[in-house]
Structure formats: C-alpha cells, structure tokens
Amino acid sequence: MLKGINPLLNADVLRVLRAMGHGDDLIIADTNFPSDSVARQTTIGKLLRIDRPAADVVEAVLSVYPLDTFVDDAAARMEVVGAADEILPVMTEVQAKIDAANGSPLPMISIERYEFYDRAKQAYAVIQTHERRFYGCFAFRKGVIPPEEA
C-alpha cells in the first residue's frame, strides 16, 4: 500500500502507466472485450487486470494519468452497434470520472466497434476490468504533466 496512490493501482499497472509517454493509448475494457488476444498485440504484449467496475478503474487510473489536451480523441468509448449516439449508464459513469479528473467537461468521442478493436491493438496496454455491462470499453490517450513554475 502506498500513501496517496489509489489502492486499485497494482504494481504492474503503475509500472506501465509510468512507462507510457505522451500520445500513448491505454484501453480499459469490460469482461466481454477480447482483452487477452488484443493485449498480446499491444506494446507491452500482455494483459493487465483490475477486477473492479469500469468507472472505479477509470477513476483510479486518472488519479495519476494525465489526458492529452492536444487532441480531440483523448477519451473515447466503444459505440453501441446500430445506435452510435446511445449513451449507456456505464458510459455516463465513466464520463463523470473523466470530467472530475480533468476538472472540467472533456467529452468522449465514440468509435465504431471494429475501429475500436483496431485502436486497441495499437495501444500501449489493455487493462481488463470485471465490468459486465456491455460497451464498458474505453480508450485514453496519455498527455503531459507540465513543469513546475519557478
């Protein structure tokens, strides 16, 4: 246990989040996502797990992980097949965690299912959650932490 670090962030996850650089993608996926096979194609090549609901995992990750403010797709969600504009409760919960971590609204973009799979395969890492609700899959592009002012 570390002081000031969300206890959901295990050593493997913390190592990966620290190693990622500006512009790298992190996927946080539900239990139905093909996480293991996709994770094998990512930069780290193995699956990470945090066995909690998606919103809890997003909150923990965003407590240490800056989102990219230079792009429009820093936060993304897998869109519902046949209903691209539908926002499910899991998406609303995650959006609230993003907005809280960002300190202001930062709307997620939606990505078609197979395009999301393609983005995930190019990601740095995949964290599988135990989220059982459908479409609990999200992508986050890492930003930067500015230098301290002198």
Query: What low-confidence regions span 5 or more consecutive residues with pLDDT below 50?
Result: none
Name of the CATH homologous superfamily: RbsD-like domain
How much helix is in the residues? 25-40%
Total helices: the number is 5
Structural class by sheet pairing and helices: alpha/beta
What is the ordering of alpha helices and beta strands? HEHEHEHEHEE
Per CATH, the class reads: Alpha Beta
The beta-strand count equals 6
The major β-sheet equals:
6 strands, mixed
Sequence of strands across the biggest β-sheet: 2-5-1-6-3-4
**Beta-strand content:** 5-15%
Basic shape: globular
CATH topology: RbsD-like fold
Radius of gyration: 14 Å
Mean pLDDT across the residues is: 96
The first-to-last residue Cα distance is 32 Å
Can you name the CATH architecture? 3-Layer(aba) Sandwich
Count of discrete structural domains: 1
